[in-house]
Amino acid sequence: MTQTATAAKTLVMPDAQTVTSVTHWTDRLFSFRVTRPQSLRFRSGEFVMIGLLGDNGKPLLRAYSIASPSWDEELEFYSIKVPDGPLTSRLQHIQPGDDIILRPKPVGTLVHDALLPGKRLWLLATGTGLAPFASLMRDPETYEKYDQVIMMHTCREVAELEYGRQLVEGLKSDELIGEMVEGKLLYYPTTTREPFPHMGRVTDNLSSGKVFADLGIPGPMDPATDRAMICGSLAFNIDVKAILEGWGLHEGANSDPAEFVVEKAFVGDGI
Fold first, then answer.
1. Cβ atoms within 10 A of the Cβ of 32, count?
2. Are the CB atoms for 125 and 161 separated by under 8 Å?
């Protein structure tokens, strides 16, 4: 690309970052990595606004959790594909070398600061709600703060679990946190439509006590020791929140830490 073309590209694409890799996991799910602004500092679990220029020349932005940990030199994102979605109908076609818009102002509630100290951390997600936990599971601070970390992830079909499965599997040999993860991280993936060793919704497996029995750990959650983070559809968030509150846990925030937090900015179908 010529210097003139580069300059023109920069002018029309504000806060531009360059795509470095793209992986299509299913016909509905993909992940991609982009360059990281040198000035960007974020806490694992936070999200930023990313997007593309619309046909009218104005930025078309949506909130996306950063799936990479705070120490990573690049930024990773995990996205659903919506055929007629204003953004993802176009975003799913990005290639390495393309530019996207990334507003470097991270925010979010799925951060360690929003939780009171505890012993056991539950990460509860459906679909691409796994993204912020992909960040937190790769952060040493997660294992420094908790004796046990439990990742519950539910998708409709087995193939939709692959991004999370490969990520968790890779943690064991990770030079930075491999030894920290060993014996601390419990992974509990389930499906709701396709046969799989563990099936059922997160809500059902929590309320029935099945997840505690399957993992051989005490249940239900105890407000004195258990902490939780929730990321999924609005309905999922409401249902899980009701279960945790029934066990005596309270919702926290950055300004008022408590026993669990919910990501309200998560975007699922329709983006």
1. 24
2. no
Q: How far apart are CA 96 and CA 93, in angstroms?
A: 10
Please give the helix or strand (H or E) that residue 226 lies within, else none: strand 226-231
Mean pLDDT over residues 224-231, rounded?
97
Is the Cα torsion angle 117, 135, 79, 191 positive or negative in sign? negative
Residue 146: strand, helix, or coil: coil
Sheet with 59-65, strands from edge to edge, namely 59-65, 47-53, 99-107, 16-24, 29-35, 74-80
Contact assessment for residue 230 and residue 75, using Cβ atoms and an 8 Å cutoff? no
What does the buried/exposed string (b/e) look like for 108-117 if buried means 16 or more CB atoms within 10 Å of the residue's CB? bbbbbebbee
Distance CA 24, CA 78 (A): 10
Give pLDDT tens digits for 100-112.
999 999 999 999 9
Cα–Cα distances in angstroms (integers) from residue 247 to residues 174, 179, 212, 218, 224, in the given order: 35, 32, 14, 14, 11
Cross-strand pairs, 141:
none
User: Edge-to-edge, what's the strand order for the sheet holding 185-191?
Assistant: 185-191, 148-155, 120-126, 226-231, 260-262
Q: State the pTM of this model.
A: 0.91
Who contacts 13 (Cβ-Cβ below 8 Å, separation ≥6)?
53, 99, 101
Of 168, 176, 111, 121, the residue nearest 148 (C-alpha): 121
